Here is the input.
Amino acid sequence: MLFHHLLFLSLVSAFCLITLASGAPVLPESEVEALKEIAKRLGKRDWNFSVDPCSKEESWVAVAANPEDILKNVTCNCSFSNGTVCHVVSIILKSESLPGTLPPELTRLSFLQQIDLTRNYLSGGIPPEWSSLPLINITLLGNRLTGTIPKDLAKITTLKSLVLEFNQLSGDLPPELGNLPSIERLLLTSNNFTGELPETFANLTTLKEFRIGDNNFTGQIPNFIQNWTDLTKLFIQGSGLEGPIPSAISALENLTELRISDLNGSDARFPPLSKMTKLKTLILRSCNLIGDIPLDLGKITTLKTLLVYSVFSFPSV
Ligand SMILES: *[C@@H]1O[C@H](CO)[C@@H](O)[C@H](O)[C@H]1NC(C)=O
Ligand SMILES: *[C@@H]1O[C@H](CO)[C@@H](O)[C@H](O)[C@H]1NC(C)=O
Ligand SMILES: *[C@@H]1O[C@H](CO)[C@@H](O)[C@H](O)[C@H]1NC(C)=O
Ligand SMILES: *[C@@H]1O[C@H](CO)[C@@H](O)[C@H](O)[C@H]1NC(C)=O
Ligand SMILES: *[C@@H]1O[C@H](CO)[C@@H](O)[C@H](O)[C@H]1NC(C)=O
Ligand SMILES: *[C@@H]1O[C@H](CO)[C@@H](O)[C@H](O)[C@H]1NC(C)=O
Ligand SMILES: *[C@@H]1O[C@H](CO)[C@@H](O)[C@H](O)[C@H]1NC(C)=O
Ligand SMILES: *[C@@H]1O[C@H](CO)[C@@H](O)[C@H](O)[C@H]1NC(C)=O
Ligand SMILES: *[C@@H]1O[C@H](CO)[C@@H](O)[C@H](O)[C@H]1NC(C)=O
Ligand SMILES: *[C@@H]1O[C@H](CO)[C@@H](O)[C@H](O)[C@H]1NC(C)=O
Ligand SMILES: *[C@@H]1O[C@H](CO)[C@@H](O)[C@H](O)[C@H]1NC(C)=O
Here is the structure.
């Protein structure tokens, strides 16, 4: 009996020693300090540094009533070094009225995969320093950002989604972005971008979604969009680009949504779309189209929304 008791005690103490040695996984002090710097730049005042940033305590993770509208979410991966070390992998701060600027200090979170600062009042430029991070998603939608897209962002080979819509960004798109090997979403709507779409964009064959409306681009819709065969959504509304819509667009058989409007330029025939058998929404408004709407459009049985203005005549049946 005594023997059993002793064995039990020594087992308990052995167990305690092991848990003490391994401990709970910790976020390195350098990342905690980085978060403090980042908070200062963003103008974020309510992260509670008395608790572990990876703890999911309510100042670090809070969900809004609508699950689409997550307000804040700092996520760590705590599987590093056999579960002893955490690293911050995602920061989401949506609709928080943040008044500051984008923090170059983000680079000190060297495992960061996602930054989402949707709908704040952030101003200033996009820090080129971010190019050293293994980012997959960058979302800066709905802020007051100015300046150009830094060409260094093209070095982020992991990048799948770059969302910069509804800001005051300007200048030409850097040709270097054509080197992004994994990019799937490039959303640039409602900025003040200028110039032509760079030739190098012909190489963006991984694109699934491309939106560039409400900008000041020049030149024509390029023929090379035919190479974006994975594309499902293409929005070119009031982009500044000129027509005609290239007939090469017919190669985009995976499109579910096609919205083009306000093209300047000469009159053009209705583009061949009959191979787009997955199309649900087709909007071609003020594109200077003349002639008949092709009857074979009727073969697209998935089509739910069709808006075509300024077509000269409808086919007689
Ligand atoms: C921060 O967290 C600590 C520990 O849970 C708590 O005592 C304190 O009230 C919190 N501070 C704020 C401002 O919520
Ligand atoms: C926070 O984000 C992570 C990964 O980005 C996700 O897995 C998790 O469900 C999110 N948590 C909440 C509460 O939204
Ligand atoms: C966390 O990091 C480990 C080590 O790099 C990796 O194997 C694992 O897939 C990551 N977990 C998640 C959910 O990303
Ligand atoms: C993780 O644990 C294994 C087996 O215990 C060990 O061989 C390895 O060195 C450990 N790795 C790290 C990064 O601590
Ligand atoms: C990136 O965003 C997509 C779409 O919102 C999401 O499914 C994915 O989990 C995100 N990736 C990371 C690493 O946060
Ligand atoms: C867009 O850029 C042009 C020329 O650089 C400038 O005159 C105009 O004010 C800008 N518009 C906005 C909305 O920023
Ligand atoms: C385009 O530029 C003109 C003047 O250069 C400016 O008035 C206009 O607001 C710009 N449009 C957009 C969408 O930025
Ligand atoms: C596309 O990428 C290939 C290989 O990197 C390169 O040789 C080619 O010049 C690029 N095309 C364009 C139009 O930039
Ligand atoms: C784009 O498609 C055209 C025609 O199919 C082809 O000749 C060209 O090499 C392609 N370019 C890239 C960069 O894939
Ligand atoms: C449509 O997308 C699928 C999956 O991304 C791809 O395999 C296929 O080649 C695409 N269709 C066309 C016509 O290129
Ligand atoms: C497009 O045409 C309209 C009407 O003719 C004109 O007001 C506008 O300035 C033109 N825009 C460009 C970018 O040429």
Q: What stands out?
A: The longest strand covers residues 72-80. Residues 6-22, 313-317 have pLDDT under 50 and may be disordered.
